[in-house]
Fold this sequence. Notes:
Layout: E1 7-14, E2 18-24, E3 30-37, H1 44-63, E4 70-78, H2 102-110, E5 114-118, H3 119-130, E6 138-144, E7 148-154, E8 157-158, H4 190-194, H5 196-203, H6 208-219, H7 223-247, E9 252-255, H8 262-274, E10 285-287, H9 294-302
Parallel strand pairs: 1-4, 4-5, 6-9, 9-10
Antiparallel strand pairs: 1-2, 2-3, 6-7, 7-8
Helix pairs in contact: 1-2, 3-9, 6-7, 7-8
Amino acid sequence: MPDLPASVRVGIDIGGTGTRFAAIDAEGVVVARHTVRTPVAVDAGAATAFLADGIAVVTAGAGGQVGPATISGVGIGASGPVDADGIVRNPHTLPGFSDIALAPLVTAASGAPCVVESDAVAAAVAEATVGAGRGAADLLHVTIGTGIGVAVVRHGSPVLGADGFQPEAGHLDVPDEEPAPCYCGRTRCWEQTASRWALQRLAGVEDVGGLDRLAAAALDGVPTAQAVFDRYGQRVGLGLRTLVTVLRPTRVVIGGGGARFLDAYRDATVRTVRAVALHGLDLDLRATALDDDGGAVGAALLAAI
Length: 305
């Protein structure tokens, strides 16, 4: 059995559906992982206990046969908004973790320093450091999951809004055939038209397995399947072209559950973005290299910044 590290950083990716825990070594390699459904109706004590239990699982796994590993830091990436003080402000999809000072509670429970950021920032930092954005001077990362998270990393550091908040650029006004109302207040919101849930609704399937089969059919040239992913790719492109025009990134990485289907909708997305000539940039569009680990790995990396 290979030697496992005695000291690790732990990253936690708290999503609206599931929470991923990962322990990484000094090189950013995942040495243990654990995934569990995110609790909804919990108070601060139960939320802290949930996080502490997950930390215990991955540090025990990272320690291997010789006992749990020492934790040098804990990073949490949560579905935002997350304010400048590291407080999650998302009662809509993370009610059990919102409006709580999680960092000191987790530090007290784990004995390690803790930082809290948005999951979008965490995923972007991971891709920029050890993933599909590696080597690029800057990176626009779009996480397509239960919602849509957007973050920019430049020279290794996340770019925040002027007030210290991570910009919630998953919430953009986009044209669509029908109203797509969102809790953010928009009647036609990018998150509601282009999230993975939106893809499932568009495809008329109940699970990711159904999307896998439909994507395979689209890549095999089945017209009805291609039509679904062409429409979805257009929806992704409608928001992305605004971001590319404004932010002018060198590279764009798609992460989250929507990344696994990128091959089926890439062409439609690129066509939609390139239809707007103002940005004057080639679209270097890539899928995540870290898959579902990205948010947790990035959160762990943030613990060292």
